[in-house]
Amino acid sequence: xxxxxxxxxxxxxxxxxxxxxxxxxxxxxxxxxxxxxxxxxxxxxxxxxxxxxxxxxxxxxxxxxxxxxxxxxxxxxxxxxxxxxxxxxxxxxxxxxxxxxxxxxxxxxxxxxxxxxxxxxxxxxxxxxxxxxxxxxxxxxxxxxxxxxxxxxxxxxxxxxxxxxxxxxxxxxxxxxxxxxxxxxxxxxxxxxxxxxxxxxxxxxxxxxxxxxxxxxxxxxxxxxxxxxxxxxxxxxxxxxxxxxxxxxxxxxxxxxxxxxxxxxxxxxxxxxxxxxxxxxxxxxxxxxxxxxxxxxxxxxxxxxxxxxxxxxxxxxxxxxxxxxxxxxxxxxxxxxxxxxxxxxxxxxxxxxxxxxxxxxxxxxxxxxxxxxxxxxxxxxxxxxxxxxxxxxxxxxxxxxxxxxxxxxxxxxxxxxxxxxxxxxxxxxxxxxxxxxxxxxxxxxxxxxxxxxxxxxxxxxxxxxxxxxxxxxxxxxxxxxxxxxxxxxxxxxxxxxxxxxxxxxxxxxxxxxxxxxxxxx
Amino acid sequence: xxxxxxxxxxxxxxxxxxxxxxxxxxxxxxxxxxxxxxxxxxxxxxxxxxxxxxxxxxxxxxxxxxxxxxxxxxxxxxxxxxxxxxxxxxxxxxxxxxxxxxxxxxxxxxxxxxxxxxxxxxxxxxxxxxxxxxxxxxxxxxxxxxxxxxxxxxxxxxxxxxxxxxxxxxxxxxxxxxxxxxxxxxxxxxxxxxxxxxxxxxxxxxxxxxxxxxxxxxxxxxxxxxxxxxxxxxxxxxxxxxxxxxxxxxxxxxxxxxxxxxxxxxxxxxxxxxxxxxxxxxxxxxxxxxxxxxxxxxxxxxxxxxxxxxxxxxxxxxxxxxxxxxxxxxxxxxxxxxxxxxxxxxxxxxxxxxxxxxxxxxxxxxxxxxxxxxxxxxxxxxxxxxxxxxxxxxxxxxxxxxxxxxxxxxxxxxxxxxxxxxxxxxxxxxxxxxxxxxxxxxxxxxxxxxxxxxxxxxxxxxxxxxxxxxxxxxxxxxxxxxxxxx
Lengths: 521, 486
Prior knowledge:
Distance between the termini of chain A: 66 Å
Radius of gyration of chain A: 26 Å
CATH class of the largest domain in chain A: Mainly Beta
Number of strands of chain A: 30
CATH class of the largest domain in chain B: Mainly Beta
Largest sheet of chain B: 8 strands, antiparallel
Low-confidence stretches of chain B: 11-26
Number of helices of chain B: 8
Oligomer: heterodimer
Helix content of chain A: 10-25%
Mean pLDDT of chain A: 88
Mean pLDDT of chain B: 91
Number of strands of chain B: 30
Number of domains of chain A: 3
Shape of chain A: globular
Strand content of chain B: 35-45%
CATH architecture of the largest domain in chain B: Beta Barrel
CATH topology of the largest domain in chain A: Thrombin, subunit H
Largest sheet of chain A: 8 strands, antiparallel
CATH topology of the largest domain in chain B: Thrombin, subunit H
Shape of chain B: flat
CATH architecture of the largest domain in chain A: Beta Barrel
Structural class of chain A: mainly beta
């Protein structure tokens, strides 16, 4: 089948006739994008987070991937979450070709795919990744959509630092005005034939892109060698809590002479960059040779004022040690800070779960699961007003702070009613403190605790709430009752353990602020 | 399931909305004793606590009882600046004043300023609790109408339910399908020529379902105010859980045939503190055995055991039978009002308390502040008010103070954070009341005021001299008449 021309396609696809998007034929004098990108179709199937043993109906998500070397495609990690089948399509082929995941980093929200079909990459060429992003002029966002190559003239907007959308690394992103509708699905963005970024989200006509520096660092890392590679990920300031130091009164009170400057450090949780080297009430004046101003910005040589979070991503990796200057106890000190990664799983209540499958335990009809963002989302986009109060404040007050003895919050999400658990049928969404006297911070721990009843009773103790503080179940009939309930409610397995291990957060910070005291153990 | 209730006061804006289903029936003698009440009221603004809101007016009903008094709902006459009574077939407004008001039970007594005005009106007598399925009639002035109307309905449920006026109190309530519309509030519900209750709220979820306050609650209110002061309902101060599961009963060392509820939590300094402990089983109250679901058999009804506690006045004792470690005990608990619960109630007849220093607006945390913050309510405020007292009862602040907002000025304009923050310490002193906050600020002689906020380690600092110098100016710029209301 030969490619159809641009005019014919435009007639066939009225929906694609957007004001400023144009279609590119091979003969056009535009940069040649068609051999650098492929359409991506991901069949995905998520679990019913409210009944974690059940999968929902599969859905298909479509986006774009960009060729970054012979045999490798780059896209968002978010695109391929919960994927059961990945396919790609390229210009000149009417069929979808299976692809496979080579590597993904959900913290930075990037993934590499491969296609095993012989010769697939023969007529494709890798995009050259730019050294940095363009900050002015016109750039091109490109995608396959409905077998059309669409190109949007896009205009770079502001560069700012934030937590990667759908990820957990703080880094610079570029805002881009685009004419695409429904964009944000990993469309590559080119300037002068070089790849300057990949979109990770789009709000209205403003797209957010991960900049070229990040793409380059990821593509050139051992990630390209697959999951077994010696991949270190990205360092991040995530978890560290600080406030601006614009207030002359605050600076004077702390004894900092001259103009207020630096970032006022408030909390340094376990596992965060700065753990054991920064202290609450330090003022971070310099990091890696960059002076930090009163609102937490430093002067990036290309992009100007950027929040200091980006310093640790820019040319550094987790484990690197960078110099810093801090104002502490009325003295300026030179210190060293070991950079850490900030994977989503480092949070006590992760917004993004590392596992596709929700871990759970059904014991005596009580359904236990780990509290995470996906569960909170079962109350809908407005979960912040609809989810139970206790879960909401756990997420906000404790969500970022693991401690060595509390690494996850386990909740009883609901009860599968039976005569065995009568009296508890209305119990729902209560965080568990202990089972049979054992503190609980994992599904595995909950399962083990049920193996150790006391006085032939099982006792589940909840964090204090206004309804019920504990559940007591009979020990002698526990196993038989659990099996009967699993059978009655057609639950195939009583237990699913996490597939991904918790990240190593290192030694506990010497100057941790003890967030755990907010809700006592 | 959480149920929604609305109070049934008509307001100026509600007139067009009210669906009137009442029918005129032959006027009886006591109909003359049903009065119309118009309340010109003014509430505080918990987001701008120095400036009361614009006055408004609303209306309800009431009825004459012995002593030349008129009984109505508390919400009909709350926050009153001027109350007007309209008597049967009399177009003349008569000024009235509040004689007693119980917000926790939504009842009030008012009396005309003019002595003897009600002499010719028969005092209505009270009956008892109507039977399920029996017929009652409501009387009142719904939708602001100037002529009395009545509706008839059947008693469909009798149970403890939330009183919407404070949103935090539950008492015995009678449900009926007699139309109870805005303006019916405070009117009598009649059975066999006697008052069976006071109409007070309607369901927001069920159609044509209204509620009235039964005479048991009315009697409690009248007994309470007999000495001229309303003290309020006392609280036992415990949280209990049902013991319907046999394993839970075994764990509580209950013998076959025994039933009751498990004490989960005892509020510090409450009536039960020192008498009951976590893990005790409440077997009986006032001699009535408690079932495992927390109910007792009372007058052919099964109601919550708390119904018996509700019959006590503050200062009266109640005998309890408990099981502790398998041992049977009898204790007598003196019931007292529990002031910390006031923070969970909507506030009436008082303007917000506040203190403003250098443009920083500090207020005690309570439900009104939560309502004022609306959907922007930060979760740490939620935790501080509702969860910390039960999670860390001994560490919880007696009164939590919140930096609500900032009146912008050069002296405070650089503060990074200045909204909705719980104050932990000021100038090194822990803060557990507005008085302590004021003392910590006004007694500080250091060069700076240092505000440490709870939960996120935030720190705010003011230059003391500059703040002192700017204080009056800020109040003047923003039209704040007083820097404090205590």
